[in-house]
Here is the input.
Amino acid sequence: MDVLIISYTAPIISLSMNFSSQELGIVFSSGVLGMAIGALILAPLADKIGRRKIILISIIIISLSVIITALSSSLYEVVILRFLSGLGIGSMLATTVSMVSEYTPSKSKEFWISFILAGYPIGAILAGFLSNFILVSYNWQSVFLVFGLISSLFIPIVYFLLPESILFLKNNNQNSLQKINSILKSLNHSKIKVLPNKSKIKKSIPLSNLFSQKFIYLTIKLWTAFFFSFMCLYFLISWIPKLVSDFGLSMELGIYSGVVFNIGAFFGILTQGFFSSLFGLRKTIFAFLILTALLMLNMNFFLGSNIILIVFGVLGFFVQGGFVGLYSLAARIYPTEFRNTGIGWSIGAGRLGAVIGPLAAGFLLSLGLGISENFKIFAIPAIISSFFTLKIYLRN
Here is the structure.
């Protein structure tokens, strides 16, 4: 919800503050930049101070920045606050994946990571309906105030109810036996008398571990897969409403296309998690991304058709399902000692693709390239991502 709040309020904010298109682009980019830096810098701190603390810090940052945005009166204030909210969101994504990975059984890990990340499209759908409902009777400031207050409700929930990762406590706290037993008791597990042996991972800089002899090739392949999947996904997210209107359909249908895309994404994410548990993570991601590419390559058959919204729903099903699978893959690759760093930097590398994709599409459209040609071009990143995913061989 907090990611997309700016998209739904942008037209009104632009009129209210007299933003130009270029200035509005800066506002959009500041949030994406914040998410990238949050994943690169803030999320890795969880490997040092704990998952729970970073999740709590992230929620506080998000809540405060979104609420204070309602008080902003200039471009600079909006840009800074969107950057700060992105900072919290970027770290939140990586840290929740680590936490879920460490608390779920190995056999069904992919499903539960996907289940948690399915909250993203749900938030996207709710954000659209809720913001439209508020804007009918109130102003754009009210939207930010309501969304920020909703986020702040989770501060006490996390503080009082969310436990720390047991694996983190085991490897980073000499006096953690009592804390671990308290968590085990709350989960109806038996207490332990002594701590298990610590992992033999060397206490070096977490980032350097990603490029150690054991992990360097896995890291490069994972970053490449993330980069190209982000490029394809953000091309679709950014341009689908505009492309729908270019088909000759109404702007209202353009907005609904985004909702249908995210509904498809929700079911695709859950389905991917289920299939990954049955058939393997790499093969499932590969299949989802290849099917994404095939659909995009044949998009010209659906242009102007009455079923175009359904096609976008199917597209959201496959592309988001495959994309979210990469989070599970990252959680599988890296051990607890630097898992947050591994996931965070993978997301950060991918965000470069998120920036390049929409910009490249705008450039290609300005050259007069047709809509179907753009879909065909951006099917290529999906294919590249799928093949790099298939080349990642898990060791744990």
Remarks:
- The domain at 5-162+205-390 is CATH 1.20.1250.20 (Growth Hormone; Chain: A;).
- The mean pLDDT is 84.
- The two ends are 34 Å apart (CA to CA).
- The longest helix spans residues 216-246.
